[in-house]
Amino acid sequence: MQYKQPMPNEPFSKPHILVVDDDTRLRELLQTYLRDQGFAVTVAIHAKDARSKLALFAFDLMVLDVMMPFESGVEFTHALRANPFPHLPPILLLTAMAESEDRILGLEAGADDYLIKPFEPRELVLRIQAILRRTEKKEEKKEAKATFGEYSFDMESGRLLKNQEVIALGTNEIQLLKLLIQQSPEAVSRTDLAKLLGMGDNERNIDVQITRLRKKIEPDSSRPQYIQTMRGAGYLIYVDKGI
Length: 243
Hints:
By secondary structure, this protein is α/β, with parallel strands linked by helices. The chain folds into 2 domains: 16-135, Response regulator (Rossmann fold); 145-237, Winged helix-like DNA-binding domain superfamily/Winged helix DNA-binding domain (Arc Repressor Mutant, subunit A, Orthogonal Bundle). Helix content is 38%, strand content 19%. The protein has helices at 24-36, 47-56, 73-82, 100-109, 121-135, 171-183, 190-196, 203-217, and strands at residues 16-20, 40-44, 61-65, 91-95, 113-116, 145-148, 151-154, 160-162, 165-167, 227-230, 234-237. The termini are far apart.
C-alpha cells in the first residue's frame, strides 16, 4: 500500500522524522526502514529543501547527513540554532568522519547526537528513540520557573528569557539547564549529567554542552557568574528563586 503524506495542517499519529541526505540510495533506504519501524518520514535532498519542509511541518526529530553540497550538515545545524524555526526538532547527525574533533564540532553547532557511518539501522532507531524519550513532553507536569540574574527559565516549556527576550536553546541545553536547576545549590558530577542526558560515559560531551550554554547566558563565558565549575564535584548553577 502506498504511503500517504499528510497535508501540512494534518496531525501525525506517529513520530515524524525528517531525513536530509543527498545520497539518493541511502535516503530511500532510511525512509523505507524508518517507516517499517513505525515512524512517519519526510525526506529532503539538501539544506534548502529541508528548510522548506521545516516551514510546513512540526517534526519530532531530524536525521541530517554532514557531507552535503552547498551547505554541510554542521553548517546547517549551526544556522538553525542561530535562527531557529518555531518548532525546531532535535538533530541527529550522520557522519563518515570518525575523528573526535569532527564530532565535537557537530555538537558545538547544536546537534543532539551523532552516528558514524557505516552504521546498523537498528542502532539508528535506538538513538532516535533515546532522543525522543529525552525530549517528549511529560503529561500533567507541574509548572515551575526559576530565576537567576536577569534570566527566567520555565521548567515545563524549556523557555529561557532574559528581560523578556527569548534565548534560543538546543534540546540538550534545555535538559542540562533543567538538571542543574533541579539540583541547585548542589553540584552535579559530569558522570551523572552524561548518564542523565543519555550520553553514556562521555563526559567530554557534557563539557561541550556547558561551554555552549555559558556562551549564551554568561556576560563573560571565561568568568562565569551562574554556571560554576566545582573542582572534583562537577557543575552547579546558582538560582535566585528556585522551583
